[in-house]
Every structure is written in C-alpha cells, then in structure tokens.
Amino acid sequence: MTDLVRAPGPVVMGVLNVTPDSFSDGGRYADLDAAVGHGVRLREAGAHLVDIGGESTRPGAERIDAVTEAERVLPVIRELTAAGVPVSIDTSRARVAEAALGAGAAVVNDVSGGLADPDMARVVRDAGCPWVLMHWRGHSRKMRDLASYTDVVTDVRDELGQRIDEALAAGVPADRIVVDPGLGFAKTAVHNWELSARLPELLDLGYPLLFGASRKSYLGRLLAGADGAPRPTAGREAATVATSVLAVAAGAWGVRVHDVRATVDALAVWAATGSPRLVPARAGGGPPT
Ligand code: PMM
C-alpha cells in the first residue's frame, strides 16, 4: 500500500458507511450482505480502496462507543479483504484502527488527523500502513462552533503541517502520510469553496492530498431550487464529479466518493485528453526527501 501513496494518482476511494445515520448512505448498508455486496460493486466500478466507516461524522452527530463501532466494521472488513478488495478504515479511534488492520484493512483514514486519540500514531507506525490525516478541529457535535479562521487555506495548511510534524515525531515515515482538507468539518460552504479554489497552496505541504467533497451539503446548497431548499444528496452526483475532476486537475492525489463509476469515467476523460493540469504538475508528487 505504500506504493498507493506514491502513486501519481488519481486514486479513487469509494465510500462505504455501515452506519444507521450517515448523511448520504446512512442505513443502506447496515446489513452485512448489503455492505459487502456494495463494497464489491465499488471495487468493480474502479475503486482503488473501499473506505469503511462505522461512526457517522455528519455535523451534530452523537458519538457511539468503540465496541459498537468495531462490531459494525470488522465483519465487513474481513469479508471484503477475503474477497480481495483493498480496504481503508475510517476511524479516529486507535483501538478500532488496530482491530481493523488485524482484520485486513490496509490504510487508516483518520478524520481527526491523529488529534482524537493519542495512541493512533503508535498503531499506524507499528502497522507500517498509510495514514490519511484529515484537517479536524473537534467532534461532530461541536464542529459548527469551530468554523472560525483568519484565512481558511493558510490556517488549514498550518494545522495540517502540525499534524504531519506530530506524525513524523511519533516515528511514522513520511511516505505513509496523506493529507486531506476535511471539507465540511468545521467549515462553512464559503470555506469549502475557498479550499477547493486554492488547493495548490495545500499541496505546498509536499504530501499527497485526498479530496472528499462527495454529495456534501455545500453542493446541495449550490444547487438549491428556486424555493431555496438544498438539492437532496441523490441529486448532487454531477456536481460531485465536477469537484473530483477539478481537484485532480489541480494536483490532488485522490478523491473520496460515493458513486465510484461516475468519477472513474470522468477521470478517464481527463486522462484521455492528456491529463490537463490547472497548475503545472509538481516534480515527484510525494513528500520532500
Ligand atoms: N468525509 C466524511 C467521512 N470521512 N474522510 C476523509 N479522509 N475525508 C472526508 O472528507 C471525509 C472522510 C463524511 O462524509 P460521509 O458521511 O459521506 O462518509
């Protein structure tokens, strides 16, 4: 999986939430067979990784305990990895990550960037697996109150830089680290658009960048009807695909999406037209050595 981090991209991560309450797919894959079936379909559609989450991180969500989270994700991870599907675990708990890695997960996707659990760095370091460090300021219940920035792009870049420094200090090798601006996490719609427009400033960190805009509420607000009501999640797919192509063209290493086929198809068009970049591609594409 280290090779996946070093890959020039674009890497497509398919979302599989085994939660009753996630904003887009909550409740649909709570049953083991349905979850495994969907994970296999995401892989067949071209996902390089299937990202399995057992705790909803939508704004305002209440936390569940670690045992419940592990009980939701572990059987799905076991079955999918046995079927040859590469899996990442979407958790900010070290205990859950450790059990998921033991069950076959290859990557830790930590929406807290290591902040929520001081033991996460050790788990990742000992496993030698890639670690997605997402920008985060606090748990879902209170994150709306934390969306205050001097300049959202420089603040997110600086805070991600701190997370990287802490990971390196804990012994996690640079070539296992992926960063993510954390769209919608302690961010308003204006913040999300600003981060999207200025991705190259985040790429200055020198690490592969994952972009997760799929079906998020700021897209629903952009596409609101004449009555001002946000477009429901099911109608946000074309906008999601546009965000994926723009992010990859701006230099993102990967995208995290619900509808894998639509994004894979769009990225095939992008590749067939010569992989046009909005900014000159950086040499190397990985962390500084
Ligand atoms: N967003 C969600 C959950 N996990 N992980 C990363 N790395 N980046 C994200 O933007 C991200 C994430 C919330 O969306 P979901 O409920 O559709 O999973």
From TrEMBL:
<dbReference type="InterPro" id="IPR006390">
    <property type="entry name" value="DHP_synth_dom"/>
</dbReference>
<feature type="domain" description="Pterin-binding">
    <location>
        <begin position="10"/>
        <end position="268"/>
    </location>
</feature>
<keyword id="KW-0479">Metal-binding</keyword>
<dbReference type="InterPro" id="IPR011005">
    <property type="entry name" value="Dihydropteroate_synth-like_sf"/>
</dbReference>
<dbReference type="GO" id="GO:0046656">
    <property type="term" value="P:folic acid biosynthetic process"/>
</dbReference>
<comment type="pathway">
    <text>Cofactor biosynthesis; tetrahydrofolate biosynthesis; 7,8-dihydrofolate from 2-amino-4-hydroxy-6-hydroxymethyl-7,8-dihydropteridine diphosphate and 4-aminobenzoate: step 1/2.</text>
</comment>
<comment type="function">
    <text>Catalyzes the condensation of para-aminobenzoate (pABA) with 6-hydroxymethyl-7,8-dihydropterin diphosphate (DHPt-PP) to form 7,8-dihydropteroate (H2Pte), the immediate precursor of folate derivatives.</text>
</comment>
<dbReference type="GO" id="GO:0005829">
    <property type="term" value="C:cytosol"/>
</dbReference>
<dbReference type="GO" id="GO:0046872">
    <property type="term" value="F:metal ion binding"/>
</dbReference>
<protein>
    <recommendedName>
        <fullName>Dihydropteroate synthase</fullName>
        <ecNumber>2.5.1.15</ecNumber>
    </recommendedName>
</protein>
<dbReference type="InterPro" id="IPR045031">
    <property type="entry name" value="DHP_synth-like"/>
</dbReference>
<dbReference type="GO" id="GO:0004156">
    <property type="term" value="F:dihydropteroate synthase activity"/>
</dbReference>
<dbReference type="InterPro" id="IPR000489">
    <property type="entry name" value="Pterin-binding_dom"/>
</dbReference>
<keyword id="KW-0289">Folate biosynthesis</keyword>
<keyword id="KW-0460">Magnesium</keyword>
<keyword id="KW-0808">Transferase</keyword>
<dbReference type="GO" id="GO:0046654">
    <property type="term" value="P:tetrahydrofolate biosynthetic process"/>
</dbReference>
<comment type="similarity">
    <text>Belongs to the DHPS family.</text>
</comment>
<dbReference type="Pfam" id="PF00809">
    <property type="entry name" value="Pterin_bind"/>
</dbReference>
